[in-house]
From TrEMBL:
PANTHER family in the record: 1,2-PHENYLACETYL-COA EPOXIDASE, SUBUNIT C, PHENYLACETIC ACID DEGRADATION PROTEIN PAA
High-level lineage: Bacteria, Bacillati, Actinomycetota, Actinomycetes, Streptosporangiales
Lineage: superkingdom: Bacteria
Record's protein name: Benzoyl-CoA 2,3-epoxidase subunit BoxB
GO molecular function: oxidoreductase activity
Length: 472
């Protein structure tokens, strides 16, 4: 195990791949299939090269190299964070025992399933974002899209390595299937619902990278705690790259809100449609949709599967080792969302069964930070409106609120009333058509579309007008 990646290899890695010729051959035979998938399902806009960062090291400092790269030649590789000597299992029935370097037989199926589900999300988002390059509002944004895409591709490699290295023939077959499912496909869709939704415009992309990639952060955070050490170290490094994806979403929405309030003040109106902007009301609808869909990714409020994963040591809680309890939870309880006597309420369940709720609450608290940022922009502009997260019962299709309809304030309403009022809460066809109408490409250095403000700074110290992307 080396900290620095070996770029002399066909597959860059820091896991001494050359020491296992059989594994190396298997991964090298998967590589052309990956490139074929990238060519057919990856970014559709032709480019010569893109100013990308490539992981070269897993240490805390200086882990990435920046330079113009032809995207198909990007050096996707396998990187695990440094191994911690004498690392111990931090939770569950095996707490205190040494972590596992191999997969225990009794947990093989569960671990494989967790890795496959995580792996399936990575190429899915590339497929969802495939055509966005054609409508990029600036070369800076285009570069950020492509950076997200190549890193999702690398995260797929991370999971495929684990499947090949530790799960034998079944793992190799699952790795192939990761390239055969496609986002939105009727015959072979991606596993999780949110990854079959379309991402047709850049406002959707910013919302996706803010809300849905943030779900990814929390899922990776639970797997980082795993007693299976290669999975833990893989996810620890993936989290480094994932932070940029959420940065793209956070600052993207910053800039949309900023431009909208500039237009509101300039023209003294809340209705900025005629002036080429996105109204705050529409931004709120997009928040409502992407947030509610992302909440569903955490599963039901209660789950015996997740309780079993925790007890077995497969998947911990967010920031497990900072928790002030016994890390076994056998006698603890938690309040979870529920429908109680026909209204939105809570009920008490065993803490182990309520771990999805624990994780979702961490996520909700984190999401609120973005709303606070965007509301500061509104406040500083002297605009009275504020953006908000809808109630957890709103627009839900998984968990306790599946069978009901609720307003963004959490009031239960009839299905008929929902149908009558949902256009005020979720993007309508008219809203989507307006947003799409603004998606005119701006592919000249230093120029930007009129519906979004420029960034405060460029990438890696470069100015905004740098030639981040050379188009074909």
């Amino acid at each position: 195990m080396t900290t620095t990646a070996d770029y002399g290899e066909k597959i860059p890695n820091n896991v001494d791949l050359r020491e296992d010729r059989r594994l190396q051959r298997a991964l090298e035979s998967w590589q052309p299939n990956f490139l074929s998938w990238w060519d057919s399902m990856g970014p559709s806009l032709p480019t010569q090269d893109v100013y990308l960062r490539t992981a070269v090291n897993v240490g805390r400092e200086g882990w990435a190299h920046f330079g113009h790269v032809a995207m198909r030649d990007y050096r996707w590789g396998i990187f695990l964070a440094d191994r911690k000597e004498d690392r111990r299992i931090a939770f569950g029935q095996h707490k205190g025992e040494p972590v596992w370097q191999k997969v225990p037989g009794e947990y093989r199926a569960d671990l494989q399933r967790l890795i496959v589900i995580q792996g399936d999300t990575e190429p899915a988002s590339v497929e969802q974002q495939r055509n966005l390059g054609a409508t990029a509002p600036s070369l800076y944004d285009l570069r950020n899209l492509f950076q997200v895409n190549v890193e999702e591709g690398r995260h797929l490699w991370a999971m495929v390595y684990l499947l090949h290295a530790y799960f034998g023939r079944e793992g190799r077959e699952e790795a192939e299937e990761l390239l055969h499912r496609n986002s939105g496909s009727e015959e072979s869709p991606r596993i999780l619902g949110a990854f079959n939704e379309e991402t047709p415009d850049w406002l959707s992309f910013f919302m996706f990278t803010y809300f849905t990639d943030r779900d990814g952060k929390y899922q990776l955070g639970t797997l980082k705690e795993s007693a299976f050490d290669p999975l833990s170290r893989t996810c620890e490094f993936m989290l480094k790259e994932e932070s940029h994806h959420m940065f793209v979403g956070t600052t993207g929405i910053d800039r949309v809100v900023q431009r909208t309030v500039e237009l509101m003040r300039e023209h003294d109106t809340d209705d900025v449609i005629a002036h080429g902007g996105i109204p705050l009301e529409v931004i709120q609808k997009y928040v409502n949709f992407h947030y509610s869909v992302s909440l569903d990714l955490f599963g039901g409020e209660t789950s015996t599967n997740v309780a079993n994963y925790f007890t077995a040591g497969l998947k911990g809680r967010w920031a497990e080792e900072r928790r002030k309890d016994d890390h076994r939870l056998t006698d603890d309880s938690i309040m979870v969302d529920a429908i109680v006597d026909g209204t939105v309420g809570q009920t008490e369940v065993a803490a182990l069964v309520g771990l999805n709720t624990d994780l979702r609450r961490e996520y909700i608290s984190d999401c609120q930070n973005g709303l606070n940022r965007w509301n500061r922009i509104l406040e500083e502009a002297g605009v009275p409106q504020r953006l908000r997260l809808p109630h957890a019962a709103f627009n839900r299709r998984v968990g306790a609120f599946t069978g009901i309809e609720a307003t963004p304030e959490g009031e239960i309403i009839s299905a008929e009333e929902w149908e009558r009022r949902k256009g005020g809460w979720l993007p309508t066809d008219v809203d989507k058509a307006h947003v799409r109408s603004l998606m005119q490409p701006v592919h000249q250095p230093g120029k930007i579309a009129a519906w979004i403000a420029p960034p405060r700074q460029g990438i890696n110290g470069k100015p905004f007008d740098y030639d981040y992307v050379h188009l074909a």
